[in-house]
Protein: Amino acid synthesis family protein
Amino acid sequence: MPDLELRKFATVVEEIYHEGGPPAGEPLLRAAALAVIRNPFAGRYEPEIQWFMEKLKPLGLDMAQRLAKAVGGAERVEGYGKGALIGAAGELEHGALWHAPGGYAMREVLGGAKAIVPSSKKVGSVGTRLDVPVTHINASYVRSHFDAMEVGMNDAPRADEMLLVLVMTTGARIHARAGGLAAAEITGEDGLR
Structure:
């Protein structure tokens, strides 16, 4: 990654067969790509930080490509989300810099998904966990795809680091039956329904 100090990268894939009900014929795949990088703003307040989003774009694209491959291809992806954990010497706003590079990278890899990519971010210490929200890639109101994936690394983020995350899933929650808009009913016009 040009101009990024990458310390560590991981891809995690969960195969979910059931949540206490009957086993699914094919498991739901829930996958996360995690990258630990140095936070260039750690330890100080920097008024101009938007330039760093441009530096994060190649990382976002690489992570999105790895994730799509990990779940068997972009055509299998139905849900997505993103998140950022900022080390204690940083600030929450540094995590907001991941919104565009992470979200647009997934949309590009998935062929122009329409729904906003949900996200979470927080400042934390080494070993902090983050729940990354997930929604359907083309309609945020598809209730069966409301989900989350807990992520983290035992040695990150250090005080001067960021742990950046992308998540993709291959379908609805394994025993989804809470009603609401179904994936088959998506009109695909506004990213919501």
Notes: The chain is about 20% helix and 30% strand. The first helix runs from residue 51 to 70. The two ends are 36 Å apart (CA to CA). The mean pLDDT is 96.
